[in-house]
TrEMBL record:
<dbReference type="InterPro" id="IPR013658">
    <property type="entry name" value="SGL"/>
</dbReference>
<dbReference type="InterPro" id="IPR052988">
    <property type="entry name" value="Oryzine_lactonohydrolase"/>
</dbReference>
<feature type="transmembrane region" description="Helical">
    <location>
        <begin position="12"/>
        <end position="34"/>
    </location>
</feature>
<keyword id="KW-0472">Membrane</keyword>
<dbReference type="InterPro" id="IPR011042">
    <property type="entry name" value="6-blade_b-propeller_TolB-like"/>
</dbReference>
<protein>
    <recommendedName>
        <fullName>SMP-30/Gluconolactonase/LRE-like region domain-containing protein</fullName>
    </recommendedName>
</protein>
<feature type="domain" description="SMP-30/Gluconolactonase/LRE-like region">
    <location>
        <begin position="235"/>
        <end position="412"/>
    </location>
</feature>
<keyword id="KW-1133">Transmembrane helix</keyword>
<keyword id="KW-0812">Transmembrane</keyword>
<dbReference type="Pfam" id="PF08450">
    <property type="entry name" value="SGL"/>
</dbReference>
Amino acid sequence: MASLQARTLNTLLAMVVISLVTAFIFQCAFLYYAGGLKALNPFSLLSSFANPNSIMDLSSISLPAQAQWMLPASTVVLPFVQPPDLFIPPGTTLESLLEKPFHVHHQDFLDIIGLNPTLTKIADSGTNPMFHEAPVWYPPTDEVFFCQNAGAKAAGTGLNRSSVLQKVSVPQAVSVSHLRDATGQVKVDVVPFDPPVINPNGGTNYHGNFIFAGEGQGSQVPPALYLANPVAPYNTTKLVNNYYGRQFNSVNDVAVNPANGDIYFTDVTYGYLQDFRPEPVLPNQAYRLNAVTKALTAVADDQINPNGITFSPDGKYAYITETGASMAFQGYIQSRPAGIYRYTVAPDGTFENRKLFAHVTVRIADGIHCDNKGNVYAGCGDGVNVWNPSGVLLGKIFTGRTAANFQFTGDGRMIIMGATHLYFATLGAKGAELSW
Ligand SMILES: *[C@@H]1O[C@H](CO)[C@@H](O)[C@H](O)[C@H]1NC(C)=O
Ligand SMILES: *[C@@H]1O[C@H](CO)[C@@H](O)[C@H](O)[C@H]1NC(C)=O
C-alpha cells in the first residue's frame, strides 16, 4: 500500500515536471511566433515566464530608421499634464515625433511596421481638404480612389458643390517612397463618376466594383449608397437611398461583412452639422442592407455619432468608431465618446454585446480597417493608430495632423488621408483579404 502511494507520488511529480518543461517550451515557441525573438535574450525569456506582466528587455533591439520607442511606462507619470490636443511627451518635440513617425508603443508593432517602414507626403492641396475620406484600392489597375471633404468650409463644397473623387497610381507612390516629401511627383486625377456620387464620404470594395456612401445635399438629393465602376466609363448605380420612404441623415461609411456578404453602413447627422443637409428625420444608426433581398434593417442605435465601420477578417466582430465628441461646426465636446466600439456579429447577422474597444488618445477615431491578423487600425487626430484585438495600443503612424482615413493598397502599402496632405506608407502588415 505504502509503496503504491509512493509510486503514485513519483508519477505525479514526474507529470508536474513534464508539464512545466512543456509549458516553458510552448512559452518560448509563442514568444518566437509573436515576433519577439529578435528582442529576446534568455533572461527576458525566463523573467517573462515567471511573471507574464514583466517587461521584456527591449534595449538590444535596433529600430528601423523611421521608428522610435514610445513605451507606455515612459509617459504614465508626467511632470506636467497638458490640456488635450496633440500629445508631445517630455523629451520629444513635434519635430522629433515627425522625424521618426513610426511610434512603437508595444514590441508587437515591430512586425506591423517591418524592417524598413517609410512615410512619404505625396501630395499637398494647400488649404482645400482634397484628401479626406473613402480611400478604396482597385487591384486590377493598382489605383487608389478617395474623396474631398464634403462639408469643410475651406473645400467650397456645402450646398454649392459636391465634393470630388480623385485617384492616384500606387506604383507611382511606391516609386517615391524613399523620399519624405514627394509633393508634385505623383499625379492626382479627378475621376468623373457618372452619374456623380453626391458628397462621397465612405467607400469599400464590392464584387469588382466600389460602394461609396454619399452624404446627399440639401433636401432634394437624399443620401445614398452608390455602386461605382472603378474603370471608364466610371458609371454608377444607386443601391439604396431611403429607409422605407424616409431620407437618411448623411450616410457616412460602408463595409461588407466577409461572413454573410451583406452591406452595413452608418448614418449620422454630419451633413446637418455642416449646414448642407436639413434637420434629420431618423436617429443616428447603423444599418444592414441584405445583399440578396435588399431588406433594410437597423442594427445599432447606441452611439451618438456612429462613423467609420469595419469587420474583423473572419466577420465575427464589427467595429464602429463613435465620434460623439465631434459636432462639426458646433465644435468639440471632449467629455463625449471618441473611441471604438466592438460588436459581436450574431450568426443571423445582427449586432450584439457592444463593448468599448478603445478610446483614442488624440481627438477622434474616424476611418477604421483591420489587417489580415485582426489588428485594428483607425485614422485619428495624430495619424493612424493601431491596436491589437484586445484593444492594446501597439503603435502609431504619426502624421501630427488629423488622418481621417487610410487604406491598405496591397501588401505592405498604405495610403493615408491627411486632409490637405496625402501620405503613402510602406510597412510590414497586410490588409484583410478583399474576398468580395
Ligand atoms: C456659395 O458660393 C458663394 C460664392 O462662391 C458664397 O458666397 C456662398 O456663401 C455659398 N453658399 C453656400 C451655401 O455655401
Ligand atoms: C456600368 O455599365 C455596364 C454596361 O451597361 C453595366 O453592365 C454595369 O452594371 C454598370 N456598372 C455600374 C456600377 O453601374
